[in-house]
């Protein structure tokens, strides 16, 4: 009876959130053009080549908030989370409009996280899985007020920025957040009645609904971006809702499940921080070394890169669900697959470099090297094919065009990409002229044989 009641509410939440977000996102596009909230391709980090509105977070915000204002899904903690969500969204909108300095934005995030902590949403303890069992339950490690504050604020601010960093390709942040929210909602649904987590389940469904209603306008080619308003809001809500009513079963650490679901953005953020430290740069400096940049550099394109990351996020969501049900062996198998995929994305094709070089490598340079190798291979293959054809016909296997192809292949192997392009353009006309001469010679020979 209770499950049927909550299942009805979940369907209602999804319907309301998707509908409101889908209807209000076109309005956000009009407002973005009116107030010039436009993302213009000003540097090489951006993958789009035309100005695009970046106020779409309004649709996500309104859709998820409308879906959460349902009596069955409301309690004091959810209301506090919603109020903090409004504060974080307002901070993101201010950044979209005024382009706030990183320290100002970071300070605003700290204030919002501190407010949530003061209102009672905090990480108070973790379960010690390896500690001896007493009375059928694992030992608990409780934190003092200072440690609890630091851990809670670090979690909220860290996940908020991790999701924000994912917003680099069309549909990536919205779709990934929807998958993460639905995974956490399912975990809450499984244990909801017994542990009192159904309001959290409904709230996660509301977040997912806002993302799904916005996604048709954001998937490649995007009509609008969510901007910092949407990205900060989504990251904050995922972080805060994962703190409310965590799993407290004796066999599980409450923090592990949301950490597993959020493993991809967490990994990308930590990897970015380590990369920038190794480069002796500020950890807040933007670059093109994120997971989606590696996939783009490998030639997958926006849509396929996004779908690949969706798949990895989905695998980690399943891992979290399996662990919540004590299926550790199955979870470990899938977790290993996800880690292997992440390694394939990050590690270059020739992993003979040091770990430091692998971490600090520029994916664009890796792509250029791959392009040069492919070009050299194609040129050499074409040269060998032509030689084989002439040898079979009893003709001279070495011609001027072969020498030109060999020269282009040598130039293509050079690291100077512009020199390679220039050489290819320069020599292409010479090769075409040589081929025309050969064709005319063949036609003349054919005519002479016919005359004879």
Report on this structure:
This protein is an all-alpha fold and 452 residues long. The chain has two domains: 2-360, no CATH class; 368-451, no CATH class. 72% of the residues lie in helices and 3% in strands. The protein contains 18 helices and four strands. It has helices at residues 2-34, 57-68, 76-98, 102-118, 145-166, 172-190, 192-195, 198-218, 227-243, 256-261, 263-278, 291-297, 301-324, 328-346, 355-360, 363-392, 400-412, 417-451; strands spanning 38-39, 52-53, 125-128, 139-142. It has a two-stranded antiparallel sheet. The protein is elongated. Mean pLDDT is 78; it is low at 247-254 and 417-426.
Query: Distance N terminus to C terminus?
Result: 98 Å
Structural class: mainly alpha
Order of helices and strands: HEEHHHEEHHHHHHHHHHHHHH
What is the average per-residue confidence, as pLDDT, rounded to a whole number?
78
**Unreliable stretches covering 5 or more consecutive residues:** 247-254, 417-426
Task: Estimate what percentage of residues fall within beta strands.
Answer: under 5%
The percentage helix is over 70%
- Can you count the beta strands? 4
How many helical stretches?
18
Looking at the structure, what is the overall shape?
elongated
Number of domains: 2
| Strand adjacency order, main sheet | 1-2
Query: Mind summarizing the main beta sheet?
Result: 2 strands, antiparallel
Rg over C-alpha atoms, rounded to the nearest angstrom: 28 Å
């Amino acid at each position: 009876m209770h499950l049927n009641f909550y299942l009805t509410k979940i369907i209602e939440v999804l319907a309301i959130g998707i509908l409101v977000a889908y209807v209000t996102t076109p309005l956000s596009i009009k407002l973005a053009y009116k107030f010039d909230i436009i993302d213009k391709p000003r540097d090489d980090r951006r993958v789009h080549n035309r100005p695009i509105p970046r106020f779409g977070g309004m649709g996500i915000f309104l859709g998820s908030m409308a879906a959460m204002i349902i009596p069955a899904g409301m309690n004091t903690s959810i209301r506090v989370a919603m109020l903090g969500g409004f504060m974080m969204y307002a901070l993101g909108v201010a950044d979209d409009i005024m382009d706030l300095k990183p320290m100002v934005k970071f300070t605003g995030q700290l204030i919002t996280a501190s407010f949530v902590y003061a209102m009672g949403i905090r990480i108070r303890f973790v379960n010690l899985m390896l500690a001896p069992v007493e009375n059928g339950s694992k030992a608990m490690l409780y934190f003092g007020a200072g440690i609890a504050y630091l851990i809670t604020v670090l979690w909220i601010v860290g996940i908020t920025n991790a999701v924000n960093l994912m917003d680099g390709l069309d549909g990536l942040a919205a779709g990934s957040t929807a998958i993460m929210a639905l995974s956490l909602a399912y975990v809450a649904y499984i244990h909801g009645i017994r542990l009192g987590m159904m309001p959290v389940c409904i709230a996660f469904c509301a977040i997912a609904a806002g993302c799904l209603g916005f996604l048709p306008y954001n998937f490649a080619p995007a009509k609008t971006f969510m901007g910092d308003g949407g990205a900060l809001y989504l990251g904050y809500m995922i972080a805060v809702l994962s703190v409310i009513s965590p799993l407290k079963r004796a066999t599980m650490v409450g923090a592990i499940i949301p950490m597993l679901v959020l493993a991809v953005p967490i990994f990308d953020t930590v990897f970015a921080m380590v990369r920038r430290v190794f480069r002796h740069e500020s950890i807040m400096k933007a670059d093109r070394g994120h997971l989606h940049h590696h996939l783009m550099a490998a030639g997958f394109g926006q849509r396929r890169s996004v779908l690949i990351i969706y798949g990895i996020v989905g695998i980690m969501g399943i891992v979290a669900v399996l662990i919540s049900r004590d299926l550790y062996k199955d979870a470990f198998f899938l977790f290993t697959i996800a880690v292997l995929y992440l390694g394939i994305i990050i590690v270059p094709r020739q992993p003979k470099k040091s770990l430091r070089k692998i971490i600090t490598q520029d994916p664009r340079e890796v792509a250029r090297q791959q392009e040069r190798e492919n070009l050299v291979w194609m040129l050499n293959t074409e040269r060998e094919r032509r030689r084989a054809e002439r040898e079979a016909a009893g003709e001279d296997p070495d011609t001027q065009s072969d020498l030109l192809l060999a020269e282009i292949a040598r130039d293509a192997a050079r690291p100077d990409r512009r020199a390679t392009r220039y050489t290819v353009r320069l020599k292409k006309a010479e090769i075409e002229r040589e081929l025309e001469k050969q064709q005319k010679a063949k036609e003349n020979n054919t005519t002479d044989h016919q005359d004879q």
